[in-house]
Design brief:
The complex is a heterodimer.
Chain A lengths: L1 E8 L2 E2 L4 E4 L6 E7 L7 E8 L5 H14 L2 E9 L4 H17 L4
Parallel strand pairs in A: 2-6, 5-6
Antiparallel strand pairs in A: 1-5, 3-4, 4-6
Helix pairs in contact in A: 1-2
Chain B lengths: L1 H6 L14 H8 L6 E3 L24 E8 L2 E8 L10 H19 L5 E5 L10 H18 L6 E4 L8 H8 L2 E5 L9 H8 L9 H8 L1 H6 L5 E3 L3 H14 L10 H9 L8 H8 L1 H12 L1
Parallel strand pairs in B: 3-4, 4-5, 5-6, 6-7
Antiparallel strand pairs in B: 1-2, 2-3
Helix pairs in contact in B: 3-4, 4-5, 11-12
Classes of the chains: A alpha/beta, B alpha/beta.
Enzyme class (chain B): lyase
Keywords (chain B): Lyase, Membrane, Transferase, Transmembrane, Transmembrane helix
Pfam family, one (chain B): Carboxyl_trans
C-alpha cells in the first residue's frame, strides 16, 4: 500500500461534498469535500493505493484533472487497482455529484 | 433520468437489484426520500486493522446503515457492500450492524417499533480481523434474536456473493428471508469445501451443481428461505414490505429444533440429492408435486 499526497492551486471555494465509487477490484472510492480554509485557495489530494510504484501516473492523471478543475477541494482517494481511465471517470463523477449538491 | 424512463417504450428492462451498490440497495428498499445514512463515509469510521496488513480501507468499512421508513413505519436497513473485501465482516462493519440492530431493539422495548432489514452479501468474517469479526457476528446474532420478539427481522440475500460463514447463521435467525435465484446461502462456500474436503466432494467450478445445492431457488424450495423473487428492485422491495405485513411468524425456524433434527435424521449423506432435500425439508411442496404427477 502506498500513501501519496498532491496539492494544486484553486480559484474558487467548494461548498458541497460528494462520495462516489467503491474500494473493489479495479475500482476506487473518491471523497470530495471543501478544503480547509486559511490562506490562499488550494486543493489537496490524498491517495491510498493498493498498487505501489505508480506515483508518476497518479501525478499525470491529477495534473490533467486539475488543468480543468479549479475548486478548492479536499479529495481523498482509496484505490484498489483502478486504471487511469477509471480514476479520471470517478473524479469527474465526484465533481458532478458535488455540483448537483446531492452528496451525502 | 425521469424523461428517459417515460420516453422508453416496451420491452422494459428489469431494474436489477443485484447491480446496485449497498447504499443504493438500502435507498431502494426505504420509502422514497426517507433515506438517511448513519455513520456514512465522511464519518470515516474505518477498519484500524487493514492498513497494518497493507490493505486499503473503505471510508464506511463496506457497510451502510440507513434509517428511513418502510410503508410509513420507521425502519433501519443494514446493507453490506460486496465489492469491498467480499462483503466480509470486520470489527467496524460488524459493529455498525450490531449497533444499528441494538438501537432498533431499544426503540422496540420502549414501544416504538422499528422495522429492521439486513442485506446479507458476505463471505462471513473478515479473515484479517479474525476473532474481532467473529465476536461482532455473535453480537449481530444476539441482536436479531432479541429483536424478533418485537418485530419481524427481514433478511435479503440477493447475490452475487451470497451469504456464508457466521453470517449465514445470522441470516437463518431472521424471521423472513428473501432470496433471488442468483443468491446463495451456506455455511462453507464451495471453494472452501473443495479445498478442505477435496474435489471429489465438490467441484466448486461446477456452478450448476453449486446453485442446485445452495442457490436461492433450492433454499426457497427447502423452506430455508421464505420468498424467492426475481432480480428486480421492485420485486425485492415488495417482498420486504410484504414480509413486515405478515407480522411475526408463529415460530421462528431456530425455535423448531426437534422438527429440523427429525428432518436431518431422514437425510442419508450417501444418497442425498437436491431433490431428496426438497422432499424432506418441504413436505407440503413434495405432496403438491406428487399430485401434479398423478394428474
Amino acid at each position: 500500500m502506498e500513501h501519496l499526497t498532491f496539492d494544486y492551486p484553486a480559484q474558487r471555494a467548494v461548498t458541497t461534498r460528494a462520495h462516489v465509487g467503491v474500494v473493489g477490484s479495479g475500482d476506487l472510492e473518491v471523497l470530495l469535500s471543501p478544503a480547509e480554509t486559511g490562506g490562499a485557495l488550494s486543493a489537496h489530494v490524498v491517495v491510498r493505493t493498493s498498487v505501489d510504484g505508480y506515483s508518476h501516473i497518479w501525478k499525470s492523471v491529477l495534473d490533467r484533472f486539475f488543468s480543468r478543475y479549479d475548486g478548492a477541494a479536499q479529495i481523498e482517494i482509496n484505490d484498489f487497482g483502478a486504471t487511469p481511465g477509471v480514476v479520471a471517470l470517478r473524479l469527474a463523477e465526484a465533481i458532478e455529484a458535488a455540483e448537483q449538491g446531492d452528496g451525502a | 433520468m425521469n424523461t428517459i424512463a417515460t420516453a422508453r417504450s416496451a420491452p422494459m428492462l428489469l431494474d436489477s437489484f443485484i447491480e446496485l451498490p449497498a447504499r443504493e440497495r438500502a435507498r431502494a428498499l426505504l420509502d422514497a426520500g426517507t433515506f438517511r445514512e448513519l455513520l456514512g463515509p465522511f464519518d470515516k469510521i474505518e477498519s484500524p486493522w487493514l492498513p497494518l496488513q497493507g490493505v486499503v480501507c473503505q471510508a464506511d468499512d463496506g457497510c451502510v446503515i440507513a434509517r428511513g421508513t418502510i410503508d410509513g413505519e420507521p425502519a433501519v436497513v443494514a446493507a453490506i457492500e460486496s465489492a469491498f473485501q467480499g462483503g466480509s465482516i470486520g470489527e467496524v462493519s460488524g459493529s455498525k450492524i450490531a449497533a444499528a440492530l441494538t438501537m432498533a431493539l431499544r426503540d422496540c422495548e420502549r414501544g416504538k417499533i422499528v422495522r429492521p432489514v439486513v442485506l446479507f452479501e458476505t463471505g462471513g468474517v473478515r479473515l484479517q480481523e479474525a476473532n474481532l469479526g467473529l465476536a461482532v457476528i455473535a453480537e449481530i446474532q444476539a441482536a436479531i434474536v432479541a429483536l424478533r420478539r418485537h418485530v419481524p427481522v427481514v433478511g435479503v440475500i440477493a447475490g452475487m456473493v451470497g451469504c456464508f460463514g457466521g453470517m449465514s447463521l445470522a441470516a437463518a435467525l431472521c424471521s423472513y428471508l428473501v432470496v433471488t435465484k442468483q443468491g446463495r446461502l451456506g455455511m462453507n462456500g464451495p471453494e472452501v469445501i473443495e479445498q478442505e474436503a477435496g474435489i471429489e466432494e465438490l467441484d466448486s467450478s461446477d456452478r450448476r451443481r453449486v446453485w442446485q445445492l445452495i442457490g436461492g431457488e433450492q433454499r426457497a424450495a427447502t423452506a430455508l428461505a421464505d420468498q424467492l423473487v426475481d432480480d428486480a428492485t421492485d420485486a425485492v422491495r415488495s417482498a420486504v414490505h410484504a414480509a413486515f405485513k405478515l407480522g411475526l411468524p408463529a415460530a421462528h425456524r431456530s425455535e423448531q429444533v426437534d422438527m429440523f433434527l427429525e428432518r436431518l435424521a431422514r437425510i442419508d449423506p450417501a444418497s442425498v440429492t437436491p431433490e431428496t432435500m426438497r422432499d424432506v425439508y418441504n413436505p407440503s411442496s413434495a405432496q403438491h408435486n406428487a399430485r401434479k404427477e398423478q394428474a
